[in-house]
Structures are given as structure tokens and as C-alpha cells.
Specification:
mainly alpha, 2 domains
Length: 302
């Protein structure tokens, strides 16, 4: 009597597991289909088209090997675009991480109306990127709000978006204003995970605020700060709306970031093969960035 009961129990467990697996697949199917249609299929199409040449006259495509990549890497314009994108990211992303961390440190304390201050800082993150670009476009006009403030302070008006020296900086301000509140939330979550007992022990040893910051807070914030830095870098590489709406990559290519250059080659110049080759290059760069992220997080775990 015992053996049949054990066999029946094992059969029921396997049936239950199989049913749970099928239910999980059924629930995940819509998300998986959306992922395949919106991510995997375009990825395969981009890689395929990057090896083809499309005739503008007939619209037909033919295999062209590595010709698109050869043209792309031999184009000084692409070299300039890559340099502008890299410099933009190298300057902008650390600034965002530092400012987001500073704001998180200020708003994590029990200061008066702390919830209101957090909400006000987060509001720009809830505004679409195109709207942020239009707001700052108005503010940075020659007769806009920013120049009016400068004039009231006795300073000369600035060209901002029409200056090759200031356009990338101006777009960086827009991106920072729109992103700070979003990334601040991740830093606040990291601060909340730090045990209060560590600060109490440090206070008993006579440690001040700065000592606690560099000995406890920042070391234990490495993981969330690393995540914010890498995720922010990925977002900055994909930045498109402000450039397309405000500067069209100018003046003199000063804001010709790689996403806008892809749009320009593919849809304005109708050079689909080279545009898709640039997409593949961008995906490789992002894959390297994500690999660095996982390496940093894995090292932190170990």
C-alpha cells in the first residue's frame, strides 16, 4: 500500500510542476512576443541590412559584404560623431551621478517638507523628452528667460544653441535637468539600505559628517552609483529628441550625436545600409557598456 501512495504523490507533484510551468509560459507569452517583435526582429533586420546596398532608383537591395562598414569607418564625419558622442558622455554622465547623489543626500534627511522637495526635483523626470527640449528651447532663445536673467545680473547675452562652443553644453543642461530626479530615486533607495547602526557606531568613535560620508556612505553606495552611471550612459548614447528638435546636429556638427547621425543617414540621406551599419556599431558599444555594468556589479558582490 505504501509504494502506490508514493508513486501517486510523485505523479501529482510532477503534474503540479508541469501545470505551473505551462501557466508561467502562458502568462509570459505576451511579453515575450512583444520583446521578439519590438527588439529581436529589428535587431536581426538591422544586422542583415548593414551588409546590403539599397538602390535609390529601383529600391532593390543586394548583398554588399563589409562595404558599408568600410565606408563608415573611413568617413571622417563618423569619426567626428563618435568623438562628440564619447566626449558628451564622459562629461555629462559623471556630472549627473554626482548631482543625483548630492540631491539624494540632501533629501534623505528629515528636513522640513522633504516630500515636497523630492516631488519638485522628480517632476522634470515625468515630463517627456520632447517637452523638456521645447521648454529649454524657449528659455535659451536670445530673448528668452536665461538671457533675461543674465542681463539683470549685468552679464552679456549668450548664443547657447547657435554657438558651436555652447550648444552641446546647453543640451547637457536640458538632459541633466530632466534626468536628475529619476536617478536620484535610485540613490535614495541605496541610502535607505545602509544600516543605521553603522552611523551610530561611527558617531560613538567621534566621526563627523564628512568622515561618515567617505568611510560609510560612499563605499556602500558603489553598487547603486555604478548602476546609475552605466544606465545613464546607455540613455545618453540613445539621446535623440533634443538634438533633432533644437540643433539638427549643429552648429558645425557640435551636437551631432550618434543617434541623430543614424537618423540623418537613414531617413534624410536614404543611405540605409550605412545607417544600419552605424546601428550595429552603436549596439556593440552599448553591449560593451552593459558588460562593464555586469562586471562592476559582480565585483561588488564578490
Amino acid at each position: 500500500m505504501t509504494l502506490p501512495r508514493v508513486a501517486a504523490s510523485g505523479t501529482r507533484r510532477r503534474t503540479t510542476r508541469r501545470g505551473a510551468t505551462l501557466l508561467a509560459f502562458a502568462l509570459l507569452t505576451p511579453a515575450l512576443l512583444a520583446l521578439i517583435v519590438m527588439r529581436v526582429v529589428p535587431l536581426i533586420a538591422a544586422v542583415s541590412q548593414s551588409f546590403q546596398h539599397t538602390s535609390l532608383g529601383s529600391g532593390t537591395s543586394a548583398f554588399d559584404g563589409l562595404a558599408n562598414y568600410g565606408y563608415l569607418f573611413g568617413d571622417p564625419g563618423f569619426h567626428a560623431t563618435l568623438l562628440v558622442t564619447l566626449v558628451f558622455n564622459l562629461i555629462l554622465n559623471p556630472v549627473i551621478v554626482i548631482l543625483a547623489t548630492a540631491l539624494a543626500l540632501l533629501t534623505v534627511k528629515n528636513i522640513p517638507l522633504v516630500g515636497l522637495w523630492r516631488s519638485l526635483i522628480f517632476v522634470p523626470a515625468a515630463v517627456p523628452g520632447a517637452v523638456v527640449a521645447l521648454i529649454w528651447s524657449t528659455a535659451l532663445q536670445p530673448d528668452g528667460l536665461v538671457n533675461a536673467i543674465l542681463k539683470s545680473l549685468g552679464l552679456p547675452a549668450q548664443p547657447f544653441l547657435t554657438s558651436a562652443n555652447q550648444a552641446a553644453f546647453s543640451i547637457g543642461i536640458m538632459v541633466t535637468w530632466g534626468a536628475l530626479g529619476y536617478w536620484m530615486i535610485f540613490i535614495i533607495a541605496g541610502l535607505k539600505d545602509i544600516p543605521e547602526s553603522l552611523y551610530e557606531a561611527a558617531a560613538l568613535d567621534g566621526a563627523g559628517w564628512w568622515r561618515k560620508l567617505f568611510a560609510i556612505t560612499l563605499p556602500l553606495l558603489k553598487r547603486p552609483m555604478a548602476f546609475v552611471l552605466i544606465a545613464c550612459t546607455v540613455g545618453s548614447f540613445l539621446l535623440f529628441a533634443p538634438v533633432q528638435l533644437l540643433t539638427k546636429g549643429g552648429p558645425n556638427g557640435a551636437t551631432n550625436l550618434i543617434m541623430y547621425d543614424i537618423f540623418n543617414r537613414t531617413y534624410l540621406l536614404n543611405d540605409i545600409g550605412v545607417g544600419q551599419a552605424e546601428v550595429v556599431v552603436l549596439m556593440v558599444i552599448l553591449a560593451i557598456v552593459v558588460a562593464i555594468q555586469f562586471r562592476m556589479l559582480r565585483d561588488e558582490d564578490s
